[in-house]
Design the sequence.
């Protein structure tokens, strides 16, 4: 029986792939007011601005490749049952080969109906933009399939179930300030080893965390070494 390795990732996971983070200096929320581009109220006020913001994110993603960190996590499936819970809206974990990926905050490459949330449409690389006037089969405007601030996080229940079953828990590249994602740590059973990969200090409240103070690519390499040593 393989152990369950549960990995919570955030924007720093994809930074080395050229995807912008949110709260680092020069991060996205410095350039774009979050209430304008990532809330239902912002979308109601100026849908075109919001669509353009996510169209730009999607074009950034289409130029990006998974980094060594994403690939290293996929390789860990040889040794562990790896469950990735990501706050990221990119598809770089999947493209690196990870089998179990939960997206807490939605997926950039999907569009969703504003009138019927069950209508979700994959966007193609050839035609990746959502424009004002693009509608679902029932005639409602399409929006990005993203969880905005103030909206429910439907995947959190599944993420909690997975976190409770962790034998090893790893946090990579997230400032741990956005809930409910940051609260997942509270469901990790006592005694489970917790690793953090981040070049900076992070707002975590537990002292028993093994901090690998590196970027995602180097950090995952070190994690793999530590995990395989402790399994011997
Ligand atoms: N490798 C690993 N971590 C890195 C790297 C790197 N190369 N570069 C930066 N980081 C770390 C930063 O030190 C920081 O702790 O990644 C973290 C990024 O934090 P945020 O920008 O706050 O991103 P995240 O925690 O994913 O944000 C959570 O907030 O705006 C919302 O919905 C959005 O999912 C997002 C959520």
Sequence:
């Amino acid at each position: 029986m393989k152990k369950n390795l549960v990995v919570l990732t955030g924007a720093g996971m994809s930074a080395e792939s050229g995807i912008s983070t949110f709260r680092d200096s020069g991060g996205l929320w410095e350039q774009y007011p979050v209430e304008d581009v990532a809330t239902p109220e912002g979308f109601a006020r100026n849908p075109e601005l919001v669509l353009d913001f996510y169209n730009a994110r999607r074009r950034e993603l289409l130029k990006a490749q998974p980094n060594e960190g994403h690939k290293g996590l996929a390789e860990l499936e040889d040794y562990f049952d790896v469950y990735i819970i990501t706050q990221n809206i990119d598809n770089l974990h999947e493209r690196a080969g990870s089998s179990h990926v939960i997206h807490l905050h939605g997926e950039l490459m999907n569009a969703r109906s504003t009138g019927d949330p069950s209508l979700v449409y994959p966007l193609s690389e050839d035609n990746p933009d959502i424009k004002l006037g693009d509608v679902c089969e029932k005639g409602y405007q399409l929006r990005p399939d993203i969880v905005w601030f103030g909206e429910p996080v439907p995947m959190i229940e599944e993420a909690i179930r997975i976190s409770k079953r962790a034998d090893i828990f790893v946090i990579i590249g997230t400032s741990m300030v956005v809930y409910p994602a940051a609260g997942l740590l509270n469901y990790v059973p006592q005694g489970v080893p917790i690793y953090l990969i981040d070049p900076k200090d992070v707002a975590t409240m537990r002292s028993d965390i093994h901090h690998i103070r590196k970027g995602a690519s180097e950090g995952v390499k070190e994690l793999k070494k530590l995990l395989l040593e402790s399994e011997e």
Observations:
- The chain is about 30% helix and 20% strand.
